[in-house]
Amino acid sequence: MQSHEPQIEAPKKKPMRFNVREILIMALIFLVVFATVQFSVQSFRVDGPSMEPSFTEGEFIMVNKLTYRFCDPRRGDVIIFDPPFSSAYPFIKRVVGLPGELVEIRHGDIYIDGRLLQETPDLGEPNRDIGPTRVEKGHYFVLGDNRDNSRDSTEGWTVPRENIIGRSWMIYWPLSTWGLSPDYSYKLATVT
């Protein structure tokens, strides 16, 4: 008995061809996406304990490099910057004093223009007192969150605006700590 079922032929595969124009368009799209990502975000690894408990050693963070093209750093922002001295790597610290402000640390309390800085949550007291220090125009006074173990503006330097790479945006590794960068509240005590 013979089968009279029709035979189905597989369609012949046409060789995939790209013309020069398609290749150039794909390359251009790739370059635009790559340049946009490189221009707007960058990855950094946290080295050292200076920002604990907010950031721990070995965490990888994404940094928004565009933020400060449109606005100035604010008190409480965590910034990544090149320190104003020779260093093989950038620093990560929290902005405490803004340009033109008078910063003083007495008995572990931080004063801005004579008003007590109230931090929520309490990050602890800086381990050294500093006399009234005027933050230069275009500079920022920064502290590490681990106040007893941080190289920061208590050593007598501030961060020039042009040295700021960007603002910490999110922790992406390890996955157990994945999430947006911790955002704390900073306000100055009212004058009585």
Short description:
Helices cover 13% and strands 33% of the residues.
Textual characterization of the structure:
The structure is a single chain. By secondary structure, the chain is mainly beta. It has one domain (46-188): Umud Fragment, subunit A, CATH 2.10.109.10. The chain contains two helices and 13 strands; from the N terminus they run H-E-E-H-E-E-E-E-E-E-E-E-E-E-E. The strands form two sheets. Strands 1, 2, 3, 4, 9, 10, 11 and 12 form an eight-stranded antiparallel sheet that branches. It has a five-stranded antiparallel sheet with strand order 8-5-6-7-13, with no helix packed on it. The radius of gyration is 26 Å and the shape is elongated. The mean pLDDT is 83.
Q: Which helices and strands occur, and which strands form pairs?
A:
Layout: H1 20-40, E1 41-45, E2 60-64, H2 67-70, E3 78-81, E4 91-97, E5 102-106, E6 109-112, E7 115-120, E8 130-134, E9 139-143, E10 159-160, E11 164-173, E12 179-180, E13 185-188
Antiparallel strand pairs: 1-2, 2-11, 3-4, 3-11, 4-9, 5-6, 5-8, 6-7, 7-13, 9-10, 11-12
CATH topology-level fold name = Umud Fragment, subunit A
Q: How far from one another are the termini?
A: 107 Å
Q: Which band does the percent of strand residues land in? A: 25-35%
Find the count of extended strands (DSSP E, 2+ residues): 13
- Calculate the mean pLDDT score and round it: 83
